[in-house]
Amino acid sequence: MALCAKKRPPEEERRARANDREYNEKFQYASNCIKTSKYNILTFLPVNLFEQFQEVANTYFLFLLILQLIPQISSLSWFTTIVPLVLVLTITAVKDATDDYFRHKSDNQVNNRQSQVLINGILQQEQWMNVCVGDIIKLENNQFVAADLLLLSSSEPHGLCYIETAELDGETNMKVRQAIPVTSELGDISKLAKFDGEVICEPPNNKLDKFSGTLYWKENKLPLSNQNMLLRGCVLRNTEWCFGLVIFAGPDTKLMQNSGRTKFKRTSIDRLMNTLVLWIFGFLVCMGVILAIGNAIWEHEVGMRFQVYLPWDEAVDSAFFSGFLSFWSYIIILNTVVPISLYVSVEVIRLGHSYFINWDKKMFCMKKRTPAEARTTTLNEELGQVEYIFSDKTGTLTQNIMVFNKCSINGHSYGDVFDVLGHKAELGERPEPVDFSFNPLADKKFLFWDPSLLEAVKMGDPHTHEFFRLLSLCHTVMSEEKNEGELYYKAQSPDEGALVTAARNFGFVFRSRTPKTITVHEMGTAITYQLLAILDFNNIRKRMSVIVRNPEGKIRLYCKGADTILLDRLHHSTQELLNTTTDHLNEYAGEGLRTLVLAYKDLDEEYYEEWAERRLQASLAQDSREDRLASIYEEGPLWYFQLLGATAIEDKLQQGVPETIALLTLANIKIWVLTGDKQETAVNIGYSCKMLTDDMTEVFIVTGHTVLEVREELRKAREKMMDSSRTIGNGFTYQEKLSSSKLTSVLEAVAGEYALVINGHSLAHALEADMELEFLETACACKAVICCRVTPLQKAQVVELVKKYKKAVTLAIGDGANDVSMIKTAHIGVGISGQEGIQAVLASDYSFSQFKFLQRLLLVHGRWSYLRMCKFLCYFFYKNFAFTMVHFWFGFFCGFSAQTVYDQYFITLYNIVYTSLPVLAMGVFDQDVPEQRSMEYPKLYEPGQLNLLFNKREFFICIAQGIYTSVLMFFIPYGVFAEATRDDGTQLADYQSFAVTVATSLVIVVSVQIGLDTGYWTAINHFFIWGSLAVYFAILFAMHSNGLFDMFPNQFRFVGNAQNTLAQPTVWLTIVLTTVVCIMPVVAFRFLRLHLKPDLSDTVRYTQLVRKKQKAQHRCMRRVGRTGSRRSGYAFSHQEGFGELIMSGKNMRLSSLALSSFTTRSSSSWIESLRRKKSDSAGSPGGVVDKPLKG
Asked: Where along the chain is the active site annotated (predicted)?
């Protein structure tokens, strides 16, 4: 990203003085002008060309063009290379220019926004680009914040203001910011004009949630935090006006600091293509060397005798030098083995695949009006090769819509409803929900089924009252009252909103807050608490606390947090209550509910005053402020809580999650869930979404707290799997002691299905360098892996571990900011547009709104993209070798003189006109089976995982076919023309007639070949294939016409040659013979393979044809007239249905069961043998591979 300001040395600290531009200018801070565009009118051409020629392919073709400009070595006109090169450069330049135009347009729109700036005591309208550090700006309601501002004052009491941060983090809920007390009174222009405070703070950075600085004013030293800042990109809401001091401007703002480019991802096919292109170039050099040697020998042995007729050029003085020049001539002629159009065609195909994803109505969420979006075009084919999926749980597998379900208060559990026999009532059997009509402020959408909890509240139970009092006070929710009694809560997380809403319905209504107070209506009575401190939640503390003073003057700390943290900090007197509550927590977690523990502690006045002073000093520190505050929050006197109880919130599974996971598992994709939830909750969700099943041999749970414990638990898990694998198949046993190098393959072949569940603290040890391989071996041998209590960093580390040691494509999917690192680390990142904002979407490669769409993205779009790209590449290399190698064979018959077989216009147009559109149509539209069959038979996905359709072996097969075609393409016409005559008896053989015959044969052969390769015919395929043939003949006849000869007599001198040549029956017989001989072996091979060793897709297509025939027969049977009574023919015309199977919930296994009845013995073994090879090739313990298919 380019910036308006010149590059400056890194800052150590930022100093900004209010209303003093002269002082601030000496630091040369960046202006508020932003520039995301890359070019201007003068720099576009040189800069864009420089960027394009950094691509190796473009530089290579430029080098060839330079060679063609040297007369001594060029046997082709320069336009044969410059036309395709200019076409490619122009297309790319137009695309880059269009993108940059829109960036310019966006920059101008933003930079020219108007802002009210206080200059010389007067508010003046200024463009955003003219705002400077140290200026005071006035914002009004619904305006965007122009720069990173220190909030000075606002129209709201106590200097509060409300902002929306959707452009920063995607969260649409309102957040509150507050001016420091000493500046909150600066509400009028005259006071602000005299304000000369100086801010010393951290240098520009990209941390959106942190800011530390100090304001020096009137001999006061005041701490500043993120709560005092308004960041660029935010929108002022529900606040009439506010004033702010510019701290960071333009490129220094946190919004722009976060706009860095993500890491460029390449597919495995891209990497393979780069390798193959280098091999082809080496092959090209070898051919050039052979022909150059041939030229030197021919000139020495033969050419020397014909100097009178074939004199050397003036610069050539020896046969050796002639061979040297011939080498470069052949490099030019044979360069079409790697045409420049290959790279353009690949990008066009990928773009088409991306549009198919964007246009897919079956991945469109009607509820949210959200389509699927391919945010990159470079990874589509890799969607068809995924072996590992790493998924978040909350909001990805679940809906992230939280419902207050149960709670435990003082050892009593509430939330279950029992019938008259004392049995738990199921949801459908429950009576009416609790009636909250006594509370006029209750949320009518809130439902709770256990009336005993409301009775306890109405009876005045002190523990129950204190429980809901905590929920109504310990939070950061904002309350908005649009009409009298109509409360709207804006919560930073769905959990928090659910808890405050529960307290509201049970009579403890959070009504409003100021920076220093919280007002709650407790059973109809308004009570205002003095808010002394908020100890906010973070990933380390895993709890939130507030310190409040009640109207009686008593100071109390309320805390809610994770059980793993709070239960260790309870007072010893609560042991009995702790045991009961722990039982309730385990019960709730076993039901898949999200739990929090609630506790409180009374503080004495003296300790609080001393603690508050130390907290203030820590907040004023310029360095390590966060660490100092954290240590103060962790002080012992703030421990030893009194336990109140626990809450249990339900987060329901998304629709279609179990079916999606079952289908992806059948496709041999392993799914790992990485979640921050506690172990019991995650395990229960695992069972709910069918990742874990009762049929599994064993679920290993790793919970060790030390390195030794974790290593021992992993070792025991591997031993149990090894024990089960000692007898594999038909009683074959392993007698020898297995070495560590064989461990992986044996673990992959274990009998039975296993799952691994590991906790965050155990995972921290498992990811250490000396244990990561042991963990990976164990995990990869399991069908499912669940990592609980993991941090965002650990999520990324797990993905990186699999990428590092497994030659497998990984996909990470999540919906929140805590999933961003995982999404960026994986080969493919997928963002769910859910309840946690759009940060995951912004960091992703693909996005949609529901997890169930993942099966369609992979099994349909991904598989098709991989299939199409592989078929495209195989055909592309084939047709170009068939085209180019003819020159090689001709070299042996033309004295190695670098004479071309084809007309130079044919060479120019072959790849960009005659054969470009048919292969593009195949690459964009081709299918092997319809989308319904792709979903019905998930095993079809496996060839992509094994990289079967385009690899080095397939590449050499394509090259061999191309060379075979070129041999026949040259020698059959050559042999015919040696003896053939025209109708009038004259000799048929001449150079131009031979060129037309070979070129026509080539175009027809490659057109027939692409017809054979096309599996799904559309009108576009027909039009492009037959249209390209028609265009070839039209251009051929036009170039040999009188009209072009009259206009360009030096260029088109062979008038009537095409017409005369193609009028000869011998020529057409030669073309037909060449076509048949080139194509018949391909047809025969495919016929034999289809019948002797069919692919999985061949089998599925066959079953589809059988079904169509059966349906046609049924229709014919129904046409036969009937007499007598009408009876249903259902039982007679259909096979046994799958009703019981569907009701059992195992219907997703139908695909593999149905498929097994059609597959032959040989068709199942070919994938197994390849998997075995892949397993054997993984020599190191880290080279873990998947276990063999089971049919």
From this structure: 392 (4-aspartylphosphate intermediate)
- Burial letters for 307-323: b for 16+ Cβ neighbours within 10 Å, e otherwise? eeeeebeeebeebebbb
* Residue 962 to residue 971: CA distance in whole angstroms: 14
Tell me the two tokens of residue 1125.
Answer: 């009574």
Instruction: Specify the higher pLDDT residue, 782 or 989.
Output: 782
Q: Mean pLDDT for the chain?
A: 82
Whether the Cβ atoms of residue 922 and residue 871 lie closer than 8 Å to each other:
yes
Would you place residue 1044 in the very low, low, confident or very high pLDDT band (cuts 50, 70, 90)?
confident
Q: Which segments of 1014-1095 does DSSP mark as H helices, in order?
A: 1019-1039, 1042-1047, 1057-1062, 1065-1092
Residue 85: how many CB atoms within 10 A of its CB?
18
H-run or E-run covering 253: none
CA distance 916 to 343: 12
Tell me which H or E stretch contains 622: none
The C-alpha R_g of the chain, in whole angstroms, comes to 37
Higher pLDDT, 438 or 568: 438
pTM above 0.85, yes or no: no
- Tell me how far CA of residue 271 lies from CA of 266, 268, 628, 809, 881, in angstroms: 7, 5, 48, 13, 21
CB count, 10 Å around CB of 119?
A: 14
C-alpha 28: how far from chain center? 40
What's 12-69 look like in SS3?
CCEEEECCCHHHHHCCCCCCCCCCCCCCCCCCHHHHHHHHHCCCHHHHHHHHHHHHHC
Confidence of residue 744 (pLDDT cuts 50, 70, 90): very low
807 annotated to a ligand binding site: no
Residue 217 sits at φ, ψ, to 5 deg, of -155, 130
The answer to whether the CB of 211 falls within 8 A of the CB of 224 is yes
pLDDT of residue 307 exceeding 80: no
Enumerate residues 6+ apart whose C-beta is below 8 A from 1152: 666, 937, 938, 939, 1191
Is residue 392 flagged as an active site residue? Answer: yes
pLDDT of residue 735: 35
CA of residue 511 relative to chain centroid, distance: 42
Nearest to 135 by CA among 179, 185, 193, 204: 193
Structure tokens at 1103: 């079953």
Q: Is 537 annotated as a binding residue?
A: yes
594 is in an annotated binding site: yes
Give the tens place of pLDDT for each residue, 374-399: 988 888 999 999 999 999 887 678 77
- Is residue 795 marked as binding? yes
Given the residues 135, 392, 1013, 1098, the one annotated as active site: 392
Instruction: Report whether 675 belongs to an annotated binding site.
Output: yes
Provide CB contacts within 8 A for 1092, sequence distance 6+. 1162
Q: Which residue has the tokens 């530390």?
A: 212
Among 526, 522, 551, 527, CA closest to 458? 522
Sign of the alpha-carbon torsion through 455, 456, 461, 463: negative
d(CA 133, CA 1113): 82
Predicted confidence (pLDDT) at residue 756 exceeds the cutoff of 90 = yes
pLDDT, residue 353, reads 94
**What pLDDT is attached to residue 572?**
80
Q: What's the one-letter identity of residue 293?
A: I
Asked if residue 1159 belongs to a known ligand binding site, the reply is no
Q: Which residues pair with 154 in a beta bridge?
A: 242
User: Strand ranges (DSSP E) for 514-593?
Assistant: 517-522, 525-535, 543-549, 555-561
Hey, what are 946's tokens?
A: 């094994």
pLDDT tens column, 230-276: 999 888 988 899 999 999 999 899 888 866 554 567 788 888 887 88
Inform me whether the pLDDT recorded for 576 exceeds 50.
yes
Q: What mean pLDDT do residues 748-758 have?
A: 78
Cα-to-chain-centroid distance, residue 597 = 36
* pLDDT for the residue numbered 18: 93
